[in-house]
Specification:
single chain; 118 residues; alpha/beta; 5-stranded parallel beta sheet; two-stranded antiparallel ribbon
Length: 118
């Protein structure tokens, strides 16, 4: 089964690059957005298996957006290291964190498998 994903990041360049990478690795990127409003519309319309949310969405917090996403698992992504966002991650509903440079289909599948195992 193909994993369906929505990417939320204020950088159009990152969204395009992540879409190319994940699509090449077998993930169906069914939507993307630069802000919370666009993200919630895409999530509502597409009902993805997972949502990748950037920690910092310009003036918005990705963690605030993650708290509003109820139907799909959320994986936080950032150029920051896990240590730099550890406290925020612990208090969020995100199922995990991926540094942007480690983004891959296998990393996403690993986090989703871990969620299913709990």
């Amino acid at each position: 089964m193909t994993i369906r994903c929505v990417i939320v990041d204020d950088s159009e360049r990152f969204r395009a690059g992540a879409k190319r990478l994940l699509t090449a690795q077998g993930i169906a990127v069914v939507g993307d957005a630069a802000d919370s409003q666009g993200a919630l519309r895409a999530i509502d319309a597409q009902r993805p298996d997972v949502v990748l949310v950037d920690v910092g969405l310009g003036a918005e917090s990705g963690f605030d957006l993650a708290a509003r996403i109820e139907e799909s698992p959320v994986i936080m992504v950032s150029a920051f290291s896990a240590e730099e966002v550890a406290d925020l991650l612990a208090d969020s509903r995100a199922i995990g964190f991926l540094p942007k440079e480690h983004l891959s289909a296998s990393a996403i599948k690993c986090l989703l498998t871990r969620l299913q195992g709990t």
